[in-house]
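ingest -> validate -> predict -> emit
validate: passed (alphabet ok, no gaps, 234 aa)
predict: started
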Amino acid sequence: MEDTAQANPMPLQKASRMATILSLASSIVINIALPILLYLALKSYTSASDFLALVISGVPPMIDSIVGVIRRKRIDLLAGVVLASIIISLILIALGSSPKVYLVRESFFTAAFGLAYLVSLLFKRPLAFYFARYFATGNHPENIPWFDSLWQYWQFRHTMHVITVVWGIGLLIEAALRTFLVMVLSIEQFLIVSPFVLYGIIGILVVWMFLYSRQGRKKGEAIRQQMQAEQDAS
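emit:
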């Protein structure tokens, strides 16, 4: 039983769906609802400047990110992303940047990620492979060899490269769109619209990736069965 669970960790992923949903709901409250409410309250009931109100409204997401890093008790892939985002925010706060620059900080980050995805195509394994491995294995060391072994299959390698291209382009589009919105919308309007742009594009990419990966798995299974049938016939 243990060997089967280690060879195929998919049942473990299904068991954690409820935890994932709860985590997503918590993330929406902390990263979207609270910042908007804090900003509107500060602007309505205090004399805080736009920049100060934005900085304060960003405190809940920052605390949530730091708590997440502490809980993991190590600097893994996601923790590194979170820390980089926090560092960028702190630098902009220290420099006393304008509200517009502060608002567009996440677009700098997604643009950098989009470029990183595309540049990673030049290396042996693209960036999508490492993110897929992180989520598919739960970052458990005993499951990583199983995922690494999939790289030997052409269909799997092709899938990872296509996903890398689509995510790279998608993140660049998101960064360009939100940067444009910063320039044409008021701060209040941007705070309301921005999460829908960010999570909307990310959601579209995730759904597309799921459907594309499932299609790839079906093709791979068909090829495997065909090869097995040819071997049995010979």
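The chain has one domain: 2-233.
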